[in-house]
Give the backbone structure.
Amino acid sequence: MHIKRENQSNIRRKRWIYTYLPSLITSLRIIFPPSFLYTFFLDLKIFSFLIFFFLSLTDVLDGYIARKMDTCSFKGAYFDIAADFILILVVFTSFT
């Protein structure tokens, strides 16, 4: 009986992780653009490119996970678009 209870809590924990994982990945795309600006203005072009590549990869990854795990939501889609807008605005600002 005790073993079943532990298994159920592990299943709930995994389900919670899969539900919120796309949003956690998207929140990285809101946190990291200032570091892109910082490295770009310090002429650390390689690091700027790596940060931009990482943020682009997370954009693809969170969409894939959301579709694969069937955790798509209106709020998640809006959050994703807002993160995309912030990244594009920061990159555009740095290049102008």
